[in-house]
Amino acid sequence: MSEFSAASIEQQLVAIRRQLHEHPELSHEEYETTEAIRGWLTEAGIRIKDYGLKTGVIAEVGGRNEGPIIAIRADIDALPIQEETGLSFASKIPGKMHACGHDFHTAAILGTAFLLKEQEQALQGTVRFLFQPAEEKAKGAKQLIASGALEGVSAVFGMHNKPDLPVGTIGIKEGPIMAAADGFVVEVAGRGSHAAVPEAGLDPIVTAAHMITALQSIVSRNVSALDSAVVSVTRLHAGTAWNIISDKAVFDGTLRTFDEHVRTTVRTRLEQVVNGVAAAFGTTAQVKWIEGPPPVVNDQKWADQATVTAEALGLTVVQPLPSPAGEDFSFYLKEAEGLFVFLGTAGPEEWHHPAFDLDEKALPIAASFFASLATDALRKLADDRLRGGRQHSEIV
Ligand code: NI
């Protein structure tokens, strides 16, 4: 069991978080954030690895021996939201805000790196830190994977702050914890006519209205009561005037699912409903998919280990409800084993709200939890290797 205390670096982490909070940058524009992270890591003597990234930073602690490699990820980007917190360190950039707490993630995981650097010689392997850009666009994780950042990694860990959990509480669960978030655009092609002569046209608005209503039957009629899904139509555009029947209608929306099988079912049914209703009204339709991240699905082995680690630190472990929001951490879990947790930050508002905030007392808690988890995970992996090696030699 490893127990780190981040009390000594609490003030430093608060200062880092506030500096990031004042200077939010959107996905793929995190240039100043990248420079700042590099600066803090360099100051702490932590080595930065070159993976050819424009924004984002990859760094490593440990690795003196041939031990296993684990990765810890923090996302670094902000949102196009005008901040309304009234904080003394509120965003200085109009229309941009750290309204999802990625400033918190970055500061906390820097804290983890500082703590592990102090005990680098004792580490039984390497901890690779992924300060990832563009989470809000679900692009950054894929980019880091393509750059080779996950090569050699046996397990990957990450978190999201959770406003509705108290400070000192951590949400750990095996299986799905965040949803697949796919988008869709449906184009209905009809035939325009004078509104007084509808029989001369093929009305795409009436068709789209039937489609939108019928799509709501997918969750109630095609998804098991034991599974869950969301189908939301969020935008509808058609027509130019009150006395013209339009020749086209376009609507779009999102699907949220927690399981690849349900995801496929809902997508298939959406296409069948759209094409079937279009045919019934004599129109044609096209569905375009905006491929989102898959669901975040945690491994039981690492959920169990994280529970032991958290309880040893005196944290309250709860089994959280999965969130229907998307998270591109899921792409890492397609490449390696790992775990995504919710860390209690007792905020007044949910993610992406202009008055979003969090309790900074959670910063040292997050930093020490991930430092402890990293050392416990490396020890577990090293032990497993040893055991695997022994079993292997016995068989031989
Ligand atoms: Ni977020």
Q: Biggest β-sheet, characterized?
A: 8 strands, mixed
Number of domains: 2
Note poorly predicted spans.
none
Report the principal-axis shape.
elongated
How much of the sequence lies in strands comes to 15-25%
Number of strands: 16
Determine the mean pLDDT.
95
Taking the alpha carbons of the first and last residues, their distance comes to 33 Å
Output the radius of gyration.
24 Å
**Distinct small molecules bound, one entry per kind:** nickel (II) ion
CATH class of the largest domain: Alpha Beta
- Label the CATH architecture of the largest domain: 3-Layer(aba) Sandwich
In short:
The protein has 10 helices and 16 strands. With 396 residues, the protein is α/β, with parallel strands linked by helices.
SSE inventory with pairings:
Blueprint lengths: L9 H13 L8 H13 L3 E3 L7 E6 L6 E7 L26 H17 L7 E7 L7 H7 L6 E10 L6 E3 L3 E4 L1 E10 L3 E2 L9 H12 L1 H6 L6 E10 L5 E2 L2 E10 L2 H21 L3 E7 L5 E3 L1 H13 L3 E3 L10 H7 L1 E8 L17 H34 L1
Parallel strand pairs: 3-4, 3-5, 5-16, 6-15
Antiparallel strand pairs: 1-2, 2-4, 6-16, 7-14, 8-12, 8-13, 9-11, 10-12
The structure holds nickel (II) ion.
The site of nickel (II) ion (NI) has 4 residues, from loops.
